[in-house]
Design a protein that fits this description.
Elements lengths: L7 H10 L1 H8 L4 E5 L2 E5 L3 E3 L4 E3 L2 E4 L8 E3 L4 E3 L1 H10 L6 H15 L9 H45 L2 E2 L4 H8 L16 E8 L8 E10 L5 E8 L14 E4 L7 E3 L5 E5 L2 H10 L6 E3 L3 H5 L9 E4 L7 E3 L2 E3 L2 H15 L3 E4 L8 H17 L1
Parallel strand pairs: 14-15, 14-16, 16-19
Antiparallel strand pairs: 1-2, 2-5, 3-4, 5-6, 6-7, 8-9, 9-10, 10-11, 11-12, 13-15, 17-18
Length: 381
Amino acid sequence: MSRFVDDSAELARLVTDEVERLIEEYWPQAIKARVKGQQIALLTPRQKGKQKRPTSSFTVNLSGDRRGQWYRFSQSIGGGALALLHYGKHGYVPNSKSDWAETYRLAREFLGITQQREETEEERADREAQRARDTAARDQQNRQAAEARARKEAARTYSANEVWAETRPLQGTQGEAYLVGRGIPPIEHWPWDCGAIIRFHPSLDYELDRAVGRLPAVVASVLDPFGKLIAVWQIYLDRTKATKAPVENAKVGRGPAAGGAVRIGGDAERVGACEGVETGLGLWALEGFRMPMWSMLSTSGMTSFEPPMFVKRISIFHDGDKGIFQNGKILKPPGTSAADTLAGRMAEIGVATNRNEMPILGDGLDLLQTRNEIDRKKQIA
């Protein structure tokens, strides 16, 4: 079966060579001018200023490497000579496969080419050889990229395990003082040993900016569905007081955390699901420690969560966020959207879910802090 030669590049070159004739055919009122040493065509000329200097918002380059390139500033459109031909004929820039098929037909008609040339055996052999070379090069790039990603992921996972190995128990540390300062009950009131999930690092490198040096940090382990540590979540603290460190991003993950969670409160058939670690601790206390409250760290972590086999029901506590205005539409708040995705994915695999009413702007820790403040005022009264 015969195959036609892809002559699109040749048509573009030939039409560019004939751009003056193209302009004369569709814009006979156009005039030529020189701007910064380059010759251009003014397709909708008008006079400007006291000197009545000719100008136009619709110009075509006639010289140099940009010959044939055009732009219509009043409509924010432009392109090459082929697009100009289609615009001259139909009044809009080609933007679909059928538009470009029409453009090439117009170009052949404009150039006096009766039909597209058929491919010779030599051209077919060259094309197939080039395709084989391109495929081999692409495969090699993909392999190299995959190997580089594997090396990077392996290094990050090892780094997470190394960090975890250097941590110490959280109770009695600056890390516990930070959590208590956020309104979370002291560890002595927790009905669960947090030693396997949340710990403290007295001097952890701040990997986002090595110039910052080392900082104390609360470190939480992120476990995959099989209970294996795959990443750590680090909350960097100030060196001198129990507050977050004064850095651009005090909460940083280390390792590939997708699918995992910080299992606050341990394992159970029914667990809560939320985003942040402090939010999880706050909700856990707010709920009277009646079920584990697993932190999935972010909206993307919530949407990608993979539950262990023993989990039968997930109670979802989304963060209250503002809606997003995009492309003229108001989209769902990110927290609500992530909770919807999680509920849908769990339904597909037979894990039951229920949703909890949350504040429009706030999270579970905000609720706990509000309750703490109410309790404090009652005690004063």
